[in-house]
Amino acid sequence: MKTYQFTVVIESDEEAFHAFVPALPGCHTFGMTVDEARANIAEAMELHIESMQEDGESIPIEREPLFITRLSVPVHA
Prior knowledge:
Elements: E1 9-12, E2 17-20, E3 28-31, H1 34-54
Antiparallel strand pairs: 1-2, 2-3
Protein backbone atom coordinates (compact mmCIF):
# COMPACT_ATOMS: atom_id res chain seq x y z
CA MET A 1 0.00 0.00 0.00
CA LYS A 2 1.35 3.41 -0.98
CA THR A 3 0.53 6.59 0.90
CA TYR A 4 -0.15 9.78 -1.05
CA GLN A 5 -0.07 13.28 0.40
CA PHE A 6 -1.91 16.24 -1.16
CA THR A 7 -2.82 19.75 -0.15
CA VAL A 8 -6.48 20.03 0.84
CA VAL A 9 -8.44 23.29 0.96
CA ILE A 10 -11.38 23.50 3.32
CA GLU A 11 -13.46 26.64 3.04
CA SER A 12 -16.65 27.75 4.65
CA ASP A 13 -19.68 28.45 2.52
CA GLU A 14 -23.03 29.73 3.74
CA GLU A 15 -24.21 26.43 5.23
CA ALA A 16 -21.31 23.99 5.46
CA PHE A 17 -17.64 23.42 4.60
CA HIS A 18 -16.41 22.66 1.10
CA ALA A 19 -13.22 20.58 0.84
CA PHE A 20 -11.24 20.01 -2.35
CA VAL A 21 -7.84 18.88 -3.59
CA PRO A 22 -6.35 21.27 -6.18
CA ALA A 23 -3.98 18.60 -7.54
CA LEU A 24 -6.88 16.16 -8.10
CA PRO A 25 -9.43 17.99 -10.27
CA GLY A 26 -12.96 16.84 -9.49
CA CYS A 27 -12.04 15.59 -6.02
CA HIS A 28 -14.24 17.53 -3.62
CA THR A 29 -16.86 17.07 -0.94
CA PHE A 30 -18.77 18.87 1.80
CA GLY A 31 -19.25 18.50 5.54
CA MET A 32 -21.32 20.27 8.16
CA THR A 33 -18.17 20.75 10.29
CA VAL A 34 -14.47 21.06 9.47
CA ASP A 35 -13.87 17.62 10.98
CA GLU A 36 -16.62 16.08 8.86
CA ALA A 37 -15.28 17.79 5.73
CA ARG A 38 -11.76 16.51 6.57
CA ALA A 39 -13.00 12.93 7.00
CA ASN A 40 -15.09 13.14 3.82
CA ILE A 41 -12.23 14.50 1.70
CA ALA A 42 -9.89 11.76 2.95
CA GLU A 43 -12.40 9.17 1.72
CA ALA A 44 -12.94 11.07 -1.54
CA MET A 45 -9.17 11.21 -2.13
CA GLU A 46 -8.82 7.47 -1.60
CA LEU A 47 -11.65 6.70 -4.03
CA HIS A 48 -10.40 9.26 -6.56
CA ILE A 49 -6.87 7.83 -6.56
CA GLU A 50 -8.13 4.24 -6.77
CA SER A 51 -10.27 5.24 -9.76
CA MET A 52 -7.28 6.91 -11.44
CA GLN A 53 -5.20 3.76 -10.90
CA GLU A 54 -7.95 1.54 -12.33
CA ASP A 55 -8.08 3.80 -15.41
CA GLY A 56 -4.29 3.63 -15.82
CA GLU A 57 -3.85 7.34 -15.11
CA SER A 58 -0.73 8.76 -13.48
CA ILE A 59 -1.15 10.00 -9.93
CA PRO A 60 0.17 13.59 -9.68
CA ILE A 61 2.90 14.40 -7.20
CA GLU A 62 2.92 17.77 -5.49
CA ARG A 63 6.34 19.31 -5.42
CA GLU A 64 7.82 21.32 -2.57
CA PRO A 65 7.78 24.11 -1.71
CA LEU A 66 4.10 24.87 -1.78
CA PHE A 67 2.95 28.32 -0.73
CA ILE A 68 -0.56 29.22 0.28
CA THR A 69 -1.15 32.83 1.17
CA ARG A 70 -3.85 35.46 1.37
CA LEU A 71 -3.39 38.66 -0.64
CA SER A 72 -5.18 41.99 -0.51
CA VAL A 73 -5.47 44.05 -3.67
CA PRO A 74 -6.96 47.52 -4.05
CA VAL A 75 -9.62 47.78 -6.74
CA HIS A 76 -10.88 51.15 -7.94
CA ALA A 77 -14.61 51.12 -8.57
